[in-house]
Design a protein that fits this description.
Chain lengths: ~300, ~375
């Protein structure tokens, strides 16, 4: 069943999550991993704020509803819910938005799976705020945990792109759960196709805004430099020309890539559970690691890989 | 586990094994006569720790900053489906536009074991005829060194449609005005040669792998990458010869005592408890072959240098060859001073006496202009 809860999260879910986060902070501190501890602490504070908000909301809106579950799905417009805590102090920079919403904004602009670094750059160029890419790594883990605790409780999840061959989470790529599966599986031509599509999206976004900031133009140049015939040099770069060049190359790859992706997506829908469809299959893991412990084990692996 | 592996595991002790990589293979190839290094590398012992615990810490290894810089540059070049790299390869190899495949061989599913990755690399590379792959990221190759397999991870392997495979090596030293540090290029060349050899071994066909490796470096003072081809044929010949000379590990094992171990006896915090003198004695049971070049490549260099003090070899290969058969400098000096030589060293003794005479004639002469 899909509960599109517009309130950030039901209070019980939040409480469970706060408990988990506290445990995670303790583990990180004991392991001496300062960066992770700091990241998890931030998440914890965020969760505690959401909890306070949810409680206040329940108190205000309640009287009659008896506080059951807290799916007060009538109120705020989409997107506003998660911002809750952030909303008031909006005089500051946009970084007051929760990380997952910043990532969502950037991914929605790109419309293709992307790596944390590109996501951060895009957000900086178009939404005037950036975030450390290291925090994004723990985001996917938190999203997976949240999904396992209460499946489909959020309108969207930041999830993994899947490698087309083993349907395992593709290294370092993030996607949005509401995208069709075809978009989230990655075949051998997909990185190039996605790169070209991202270039087109970025060029279009720049065309839309009257006075693009230098960061946006720099981003476009970075795309253009790797597309044949897109631009001669960084000073003479036309969004339209970049778009046309990208589309021209895209036409060469598109059919072959679509075939691979359609086939892999069909396989994913046939073989994988809900959680696996979003966060990738781990069935090739060596014996001994239980599926339930998958997220924790995956976390260690990811840490090691980053080092 | 066969007998050899059991013995190597005993040598290593309780530490996690460290594997050969392209760096250690090229270092090994530089000094193939060193049994100590060959044995420790084969057993996967942590030479850095051993040297430090035995009292000879070597300021050795790559600096953290260099590693960070190298990784950042590699990430940049490979970002977004290796977009920058693809542009370079299109220019360098003349790739067709349709050849833009990018395959990540970094893990099989979520499993990152070397063996599995090697098998997958083999499958994908042998199946690839350009249709299914252009760039292979994080491939895993292996090479038989000293009787055991060493797993190797080149930066990238590129394949041209109906063409050959190329080893791509990404390095973060700058190519300024078409010039780069010759020592660094030489090191990159021998490292690439190791990969080319391993790739040829995997494909079973020397013709399929091009003898030119592609070196990707930052150009001038910016971070924009540039590709240069380096011919590694010479390095390949050297490597093949040296690898065949590296004594087979079984033969080496046969010469050392059965209870020999380099175990550090670590406690639960990984602090070594074994007495350093005892460890030193164990290390000394295996013969080393110290040459001054070891200072650039081996973690045990200070230990071996200290041990070899007074031998002619410590002065370099050239000196040792010139003084053929004389092991200690003291012997050489005694012979030069006129000591009666044993019959088999009469020839070299005569040379030494003459050299000493020349030197004594020259030494008292005033050195005008230098005072």
């Amino acid at each position: 069943m899909r509960i599109v809860g517009l309130v950030a999260e039901p209070i019980e879910v939040l409480e469970r999550r706060i408990g988990q986060l506290r445990a995670a902070v303790r583990e990180a501190v004991l392991a001496g991993d300062k960066a992770r501890a700091r990241a998890v602490r931030a998440e914890l504070r965020q969760a505690e704020r959401s909890w306070e908000d949810a409680l206040a909301e329940a108190e205000a809106g309640a009287g009659g509803t008896a506080g059951a579950g807290g799916t007060a799905g009538t109120g705020p417009p989409p997107g506003a819910a998660g911002e809750g805590a952030a909303g008031e102090g909006a005089a500051e920079t946009a970084s007051l938005l929760p990380l997952r919403e910043q990532v969502y904004e950037a991914l929605s602009l790109l419309q293709v799976p992307a790596a944390p670094r590109l996501i951060a750059t895009v957000h900086e160029a178009f939404f005037a705020a950036t975030f450390p890419t290291t925090r994004v790594t723990s985001l996917r883990r938190d999203e997976e945990r949240s999904f396992r605790t209460a499946p489909f409780a959020r309108p969207y999840y930041i999830c993994a792109a899947l490698a087309a061959d083993y349907l395992s989470p593709s290294r370092g790529l993030l996607a949005v759960s509401t995208w069709p599966m075809e978009k989230r599986v990655i075949g051998s031509l997909s990185p190039r196709v996605d790169f070209l599509e991202a270039a087109i999206r970025v060029a279009e976004a720049i065309e839309r805004i009257p006075a693009p900031v230098p960061a946006a133009r720099r981003l476009l140049w970075r795309f253009a430099a790797s597309i044949p015939g897109a631009a001669a040099d960084a000073n003479h770069i036309q969004p339209d020309a970049v778009k046309q060049a990208a589309e021209a190359e895209l036409r060469v790859h598109k059919d072959a890539d679509n075939r691979t992706r359609r086939e892999a997506a069909a396989r994913a829908r046939r073989q994988l559970t809900d959680v696996e469809q979003l966060f990738g299959s781990r069935t090739l893991r060596p014996a001994g690691s239980v599926a339930g412990a998958g997220s924790a084990a995956g976390a260690d692996g990811e840490e090691a890989r980053r080092r | 586990m066969n007998l050899t592996e059991t013995r190597l595991a005993r040598l290593r002790g309780r530490a996690m094994p460290r594997n050969h990589d392209a760096r250690t293979i090229s270092a090994l190839a530089a000094n193939p006569g060193c049994a100590r290094r060959a044995l420790m590398d084969a057993a996967g012992a942590d030479k850095q720790k051993l040297a430090a615990h035995a009292g000879y810490p070597a300021p050795f290894g790559q600096s953290q900053f260099a590693i960070g810089r190298g990784n950042a540059f590699e990430t940049q070049v490979k970002a977004n489906g290796a977009a920058q790299l693809l542009t370079l390869l299109r220019g360098h190899l003349g790739l067709d536009i349709a050849e833009a495949h990018y395959t990540d061989l970094g893990a099989v599913g979520s499993n990152e074991s070397s063996e599995l990755r090697h098998i997958r690399t083999r499958q994908r590379l042998t199946a690839a005829d350009g249709h299914a792959g252009t760039m292979f990221d994080h491939p895993m190759l292996r090479l038989r060194v000293g009787g055991r397999y060493a797993y190797l991870e080149p930066d990238l392997i590129a394949c041209k449609l109906h063409g050959k495979f190329y080893v791509v090596e990404i390095k973060s030293f700058a190519v300024i005005d078409g010039q780069a540090d010759p020592a660094k290029v030489a090191a990159a060349a021998i490292q690439s040669a190791v990969y080319v050899l391993a790739l040829r071994d995997l494909l079973g066909d020397d013709e399929k792998v091009h003898h030119e490796a592609i070196l990707v470096c930052p150009e001038n003072f910016a971070n924009a990458p540039v590709a240069t081809g380096i011919d590694v044929r010479k390095q390949l010949t050297v490597l093949v010869r040296q690898l065949s000379r590296i004594a087979r590990i079984e033969d080496l094992l046969a010469t050392c005592p059965g209870d020999l171990t380099f175990d550090l006896d670590p406690d639960e915090n990984q602090v070594p408890r074994r007495p350093p003198e005892e460890l030193l004695a164990s290390i000394r049971k295996v013969a080393a072959n110290y040459v001054p070049e070891c200072l650039n490549t081996c973690e045990l260099c200070y230990l071996c240098r200290d041990e070899s003090q007074g031998t002619t070899g410590a002065l370099g290969r050239q000196v040792r060859e010139d003084l053929g058969g004389i092991e200690y400098t003291a012997q050489a000096l005694a012979l030069a001073a006129g000591q009666e030589p044993p019959p088999d060293r009469a020839e070299v003794a005569a040379v030494l006496v003459r050299a000493a005479k020349l030197r004594s004639e020259l030494r008292p002469a005033p050195r005008a202009g230098l005072s």
